Amino acid sequence: MTAEKRAAGRPRRIEKQQIVDVARRILQEEGVQALSMRRVAKEVGATPMALYHHVRDKDELLMLTLAGLAASIPRPELPADPRERVLVTALHIFTGLSGFPWAVDVLGLGELTDKGALWMPEEIIASCIACGQTHEEAVHTYRTLWYFLYGALRFTTAEARRAADPDRRPFFPNLLTPADADELPHLTSLSADWQELTRGYDIAVQLRAMIDGLLPPAT
Length: 219
Prior knowledge:
Mean pLDDT is 91; it is low at 1-9. This protein has helices at 3-9, 16-30, 37-44, 48-51, 58-66, 82-98, 101-107, 119-130, 135-163, 185-190, 194-199, 203-214. It has twelve helices and no strands. The chain has 219 residues and is mainly alpha-helical. Helix 6 (82-98) packs antiparallel against helix 8 and helix 6 crosses helix 12.
């Protein structure tokens, strides 16, 4: 057997970063449901078994796609006041993840995260404790803020996708008619101005209101 034939029979060498790059592209273009070890193996030109030499399972692959993401976003300058630190950190989570809708989908699976991003929940919890909350209250405050941010991120992403669809048909508030006024008086009366009213929504203002309601009164 010649050296050329032996070389031709060897499996293609793949690098872990190549696997991660392909996985991120699939997530970005098609979403979490489209990602599988078999799909990634096919796209990098390897067998699924060869992929398992680099990545243990899909969860580890998802963790690898998140790794380093937080470090790519410059940290904000945090104020001295702990209440303000909660606000600034929460806003940083929102603005940072706004540029990575696929990462929001991955985080929504639960228990998967970028270790480099853990400074944010650490900062929020520490600041809540500094404001007078117990450890349990601080954790609950962080989770409440995260649930709000996650929902806002999912909604704004979905809203942007629908707005980009030329065949989109808006249903709300268009489906409301004067006949609905008895049962839905406020929604019906506001329906004509709904777009203008929602245009002034400021997530920073709403976050501050949430934080003021969750934390003990400032002294």
